[in-house]
Amino acid sequence: MIRQSDLPDTIPVFPLPGALLLPRSRLPLHLFEPRYLQMLEDTMKTSARLIGMVAPNSGSGDRTLHTIGCAGRVTQFSETEDGRYMVTLAGVSRFRVMREVSGFTPYLKADVSWTGFERDLGKAEIDKGFDRPVFMKTLSRYFESQELSTDWDSLKEADEELLINSLSMLCPFDPEEKQALLEAPSLQTRRETLVTLMEFAMRGGQNEEILQ
């Protein structure tokens, strides 16, 4: 079990719009830009092997990154014949960006704080309010409305954290909506946000107050 004290104060960050990584989940990445190939090489030399996934900040202000991201440990990587890498990150913990660090490497780094995300390092969360039949009915209508397909047998058998987090990562929500899912303080809150976003999409995006 990883302890918060084992996590580094500064990590490389990969600002990728629309990509969401959550604790105890896995995110495949395709790296080909020279700066991110360098980031991977440097990361593999560290004991933690952490890369922070954080969304670019599209709002006003000096920050180029959102305040909260999620760090993943490189658990798998393979090189293609043309020098690109297929990488898998296993979500470890969310973090808060304290300061963006640039200039020393071709990629961005950040000083981060792990405080407040101790739960991310524990066992899988339980959503005590989870009603699977009702949730699956909403999910079925959402997938039909968005013309999406999936392996329904696998979804029916998945435990609630894997189900909710996987859908949060894979569903075609916009970057700000995915940020709201990332920042949800509990699995139950994430599930409630996920349901709200699916219902919002099925209504054609008519409720502008959805994330207020």
Automatic annotation (TrEMBL):
KW RNA-binding (keyword) present: no
Q: Which residues form the Lon N-terminal domain?
A: 11-202
The source's domain of life comes to: Bacteria
Keyword Metal-binding tagged: no
The UniProt keywords, alphabetically, are: Hydrolase, Protease
EC number(s)? 3.4.21.53
Q: Which PROSITE patterns match?
A: LON_N
A Gene Ontology MF term for this entry? Answer: serine-type endopeptidase activity
Q: What class of enzyme is it?
A: hydrolase
Q: Which GO terms describe its biological process?
A: proteolysis
What Pfam family does this protein match (any one)?
Answer: LON_substr_bdg
PANTHER family, A to Z? ATP-DEPENDENT PROTEASE LA (LON) DOMAIN PROTEIN
Protein name stated in the entry = Lon protease 2
